[in-house]
Design a protein that fits this description.
The chain has 113 residues and is mainly α. Helix content is 57%, strand content 0%. It is elongated, with a radius of gyration of 27 Å.
């Protein structure tokens, strides 16, 4: 039997760089995330307006938010869309536009009591 190999400090070992410190995370991390926060804020304000009693104005505001979100989702690249990107681009744009248009239409056509 041969003697066990001794750990020699003379052996060449590859030089390993220490890991770099990660950059601090930015919130939101994409421009789409910033737009998402803005759209969410306006949507919450619109729902507050609905709760106060001006339902038609609030629903129009909510419908406008959805249409603006559709436009932003259409115009932003996928890597910058952030939380606006949920599904494929064409599905997101179609659903947001259809829902916004339907809300606007319904709020405009319901007769006032």
């Amino acid at each position: 039997m041969s003697p066990p190999a001794e750990d020699s400090s003379e052996e060449e070992r590859p030089h390993i760089e220490p890991p770099l410190e990660p950059e601090p995370r930015r919130y939101p991390s994409t421009i789409g995330g910033a737009f998402y926060i803005a759209i969410l804020a306006v949507a919450v304000i619109s729902l507050i307006v609905v709760g106060v009693g001006h339902w038609r104005l609030g629903i129009h505001g909510l419908a406008g938010c959805l249409v603006v979100a559709a436009g932003l989702r259409f115009g932003l690249p996928d890597r910058d869309a952030g939380m606006l990107a949920v599904r494929a681009k064409w599905i997101d744009v179609t659903l947001l536009t259809a829902l916004g248009a339907a809300l606007w239409f319904l709020a405009s056509t319901v007769p006032s009591a």
